[in-house]
Amino acid sequence: MPEIRSLFLDGPAGRLEALLNAGAARATHAALVCHPHPLFGGTLHNKVVFRAMKALNGFGFPVLRFNFRGAGLSAGSHDQGRGEVEDVCAALDWLDREFHLPIVFAGFSFGAWVGLRAACPDARVAALLSLGTPVDGEGQAYAYDFLHDCAKPKLFVSGARDEFGPPGEVERIVAAAAEPKRLVRIPSADHFFEGHLPAVQSAIEDWLRSLFPETSHPL
């Protein structure tokens, strides 16, 4: 079973609690997964975040999850998505120093919105995964204009009954985003993919196979 390492990252608002799932000895990429809104219970232990980690780790990638500022044992306080972008940058910096590998970014809900803003312009990030892309909810409006010029491979996975990213809204975001991109709607699933987590993991794995056909499942 892959090793799990507990650690703290140096973040801009203080230390950030993190977990690292070890990858294969000859890993081709490293990965980062960001959790949903911390003011509504989101942490690195979220079930969707865990499934994303499992999919990425299954391809041999070391996978880092961390708690945003103010969540879990992480220092600081919630900053409405502003400082959280800096937290993601700190996590990307740590992964780069540790592994010197191209990075695959994944985020769920608030973690997707925050993380995409940090990962899209970062040359070290090779591909992007957005789960439960939020459009409106939790007292916040989410904009994605920056995706218009983000020419990295992108996967969007949302529930067909997502209350925070309803059909039509997410489709417009994806349509306006630069190629290459893929949108997968999970039938009957809500924003949190309750009862549909295996389908989410399968969608991620299918996309990874299309991006990295030379990579099997070594773990």
Structure characterization notes:
The chain is α/β, with parallel strands linked by helices and 219 residues long. The protein has one domain: Rossmann fold, CATH 3.40.50.1820. Helices cover 28% and strands 25% of the residues. The protein contains 5 helices and 10 strands, in the order E-E-E-H-E-H-E-H-E-E-E-E-H-E-H. Strands 1-2-4-3-5-6-9-10 form an 8-stranded mixed sheet, with helices on both faces. Helix 1 packs parallel to helix 5 and helix 2 packs across helix 3. The longest helix is centred in the middle third of the chain and has 18 residues. The chain is globular, with a radius of gyration of 16 Å. The N and C termini lie close together (8 Å).
